[in-house]
Amino acid sequence: MRTILLIAASAAVLTAAQTPTSTSIDEETLRHFQALVRMDTADPPGNEQPAAEYLKQVLEAEGIAVEVLALEPKRPNVVARLKGSGKKRPILIMGHTDVVNVDPKKWTHPPFAATRDGGYIYGRGTVDDKDNLVAGLMVMLMLKRQNVPLDRDVIFLAEAGEEGSTRIGIQYITAQHFSKIDAEYCLAEGGSVSRTGGQVRYASIQTLEKIPRAIELTARGISGHGSVPLQSNAVVHLAAAVAKIGAWKPQIRLNETTRAYFKRLASVSTPEEAKRYLDVIGADAAAAAADDYFLAREPRHASMLRTSISPTIIQGGYRINVIPSEAKASLDVRTHPDEDLEAFLAAMKQVIADPAVEVAWVARDVRPPAAPARLDSDAFKAIEANVTKHYKTVTLPTMSTGATDMAYLRAKGLLCFGVGPLIDTEDGPKGFGAHSDQERIVETELYRFVRFHYDIVADLARAR
Ligand SMILES: [Zn+2]
Question: With bands split at pLDDT 50, 70 and 90, how would you rate the model's confidence at 15?
């Protein structure tokens, strides 16, 4: 596995020009990072305006033209562009300016102070997503300052509202200003480098995400007095149907991303773990045993293998002595991006096998389905080469089970990749992860991430 990766890596590494590595870059990164973390952009209500103004002023001071695009005045998005020769299509680099809310009582260091302590920088947004935001900003500044000749435009988008109001952020930009961000490739949040016990284990690069959808089960029967049990009782039929869905294991289906993910994960796992990761992409019987293990112990992996279903809401009945004529269950369904929706519904109906239960797709705030970012693309090769160069570890292409802003861009045809800084896997459980009670980043990892990010963009955009 590693040999293959190194071969893939060598071409891009050898052609990479010098990376700016001076400490002045780190100091400048810190200055912008602290300034942006110190702005309270908690969403709701958002109020990304100060962050947008800061970015605009820093970019313009460097001579980079900036456009501010806002559906709501206090929630602007920022777009900036470095022009290339047009030989290749643009690359978009993206970070969101809003952060999730905080409970200040739970913070040792204040959430919007960007305090440096013990090798960390503390604050809301330090790993979600002011790290990507500042990396994108620094890449623009460095490319411009060095006057790097480009084969393609480099576009920077600082979007508002990612944490729950995409209407004023990515949805608004893709619907009304798409030509300003249209690109071949996109880099945004959604990846990270994992370190456990001080050892770098792998870099996870998001290339694909599942699509959130919904199915509703409606059981219908005869209503009546609770003192006389009826075989047609809608509650009984619904409960039986939900139980069957709970026990159902929809067919395992792999794609380029998940096959590569398990294969590469095996290469950095214990022999026992590795066997399961290889079994699951192999013959049916062995795959089923590994799948059973994942269902019990590694549920995220089980979800990555299939279109998954979680029953989440049950409704039925209104008083103790009335058998209701109707009962409903809502199922949170996360489909493979290329799932055949009609065939999947037909399979579910067969599992339920009850004419009294109607099974139907229902509307949901659906993120659009789209093709995966291809692993044979120049972008993935450049990312992989720079993972090797900066982190000396394996790259795992990853299909996330949840959904991100990149879904809107993938639906428009961009090949999108989720990247992020190194994170200690122990830090999340300690309560310092994204969306946790507190949040922090290893300071030196912020600087390494900026260099990693710069090299990827430079490798893809620099004139050849
Ligand atoms: Zn985020």
Answer: very low
